[in-house]
Amino acid sequence: MATILSAQSTDARVNLVTPALFERYPNAKALARATTADLERQIVSTGFFRQKSRSLLGMAHQLVAEHGGEVPADMELLTALPGVGRKTANVVLGHALGMPGLPVDRHVLRVSNRIGIASGDDPGKVEAQLCRALPQEMWTLASDVQILHGRRICKPKPLCPRCSVRKDCEYYQRNAPAKAGPHERKAGPRKKQVRGGRL
Ligand code: SF4
User: Fold this and answer.
1) Is the Cβ atom of 115 under 6 angstroms away from ligand 1?
2) Closest CA to 54 of 85, 18, 79, 81
3) Nearest atom in ligand 1 to 172's CA
C-alpha cells in the first residue's frame, strides 16, 4: 500500500496516512471491503488519490480472488496486480518479502549513470545492468544506497566536493575542476560525453 501511495508523493506525506490505513485495513480482505469514498478520503493528502484508490482496491480484490489474500513473492505475479510496476514489485520483494529486488527510481538512474556503473535512462535496462553486476544479496541495499546518495549528495546539481565516491565516478573524472590534484582526478582523454548529465 505504502509503495503505491508513494508515487508522486513524499515519504513524509505517505507516513502521515499509513498508520491509520494499516490499522483500518490490516490485510487484503479488509481493504477489498473498503468503499471508494472512504479510501479516497483517507489518502487524499498523498495526491492522485482517485488513481491510487482505484489501484489499491483493484490490487486488494485481485489478491483475494487469485492469491488467497496473500502477496505473491514473484515478479510476474506482482506486476500483474493493478498499480504495481517493476519498481513497486522490487520494493515489495526486497523490503517486505526478503527476496532479491533492485528498485530503480530516478535517483538510482541518475547516480548509476553518473558513476558509470550503468548506462541509459530505461529503468528496466538499468535494473538488468545493475543486477548482472551485483550479487543478489546486494540488490536491495545497492538501490537504497543510491536513492539516499541521490537525495543527499548526487542531486540533479551534484555536490561532488562532498562526495566520498568521486575518485571512482566517471562524471566527476570528466568534469572535475582543473585545479583538482592527481589524487582526485585520473589522467586520460576527456572525449566521451557525460552519460548522466541530462538525468
Ligand atoms: S562525484 Fe558527483 S556526480 Fe559522482 S556520484 Fe559523487 S556527487 Fe554524483
Assistant:
1) yes
2) 81
3) 1
